[in-house]
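Justification of resources, computational component.

The compute hours requested in this renewal are based largely on the per-chain cost of generating structure records like the one below. Each record pairs the submitted sequence with a full structure-token output. That output is archived, and it is also reused by downstream analysis tasks.
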Amino acid sequence: MATAQSATPTAASGRLNAEQVGKFQREGYITFNEPVLPAAKFASLTACFEKILGELPGDVRPESMDVPHFMHPELLEWALDDAITGLVTPLLGPDLALFSTHFICKPKGNGRRVPWHEDSAYWSGMINGPTEVCTVWLAIDPSTRENGCMMVIPRTHVTGQKGFSDYDTIDATQNVFGTEIVKSQRDDASRVYVELKPNEASLHDARIQHASEVNTSNKRRCGWTIRFCSTATKFNHEKLDGYHQVYLARGRDRGGNTYADPTRTYPELMARRGMSTAYKNAH
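The structure output for this chain reads:
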């Protein structure tokens, strides 16, 4: 296992050992069961999240806090921290782009289910070439089977449909979104529950099948997904234009991409996404 001293990683070594890298490549996910951020920095991230959550309009579900960094660029202080990017460099290399972030906060008692899906299936046309994206799932709250932790079906990033399954329409009022991988293309019995303490993380390949159950417990469950890819990836900027931006997270650009300004907000992107009322000052 990596040690606590790896909290200040180098671009070359990162924070994962060879065994962890091998498991990620083979299984499509790993857990990192030690503190990701120094305690004080994690506490300040939690405070920032609670402030953003507290400012949500009453009709916005807390599971739907997608791309919060577009309106709260202060979140990049944590998303681009070496302690987080150092988890990814052993997998994708030293030159990283931040593709997206999302707070998935399931309130106690009625937190919605996340259907079985692959992240890659929703990015068709945005990325030219292989969809080699790694998600860091950072636990803000305890994430357990009781309150609806993430589940993964190992090895589905390299078997079956390899990240591009077929989907059925489901009830969007009972789920975080309204589509789910067809049952014939997944093996629910092989699922693994990914339980984490606050400030621990899991990492998963964007092509792996994953989901989470409803939260009917008396404990909130929140995780922050932070998605990275190599800057050698070529983004389809015509597809992204006016809808999405990526950021240079670490190192240098290698794909001829254009990157967002980490100091400014992007209310125009929120408007294009139909999310103008999702965050304070997003209109």
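Residues 12-272 form a domain with the Jelly Rolls fold (CATH 2.60.120.620). Residues 1-12 have pLDDT under 50 and may be disordered.
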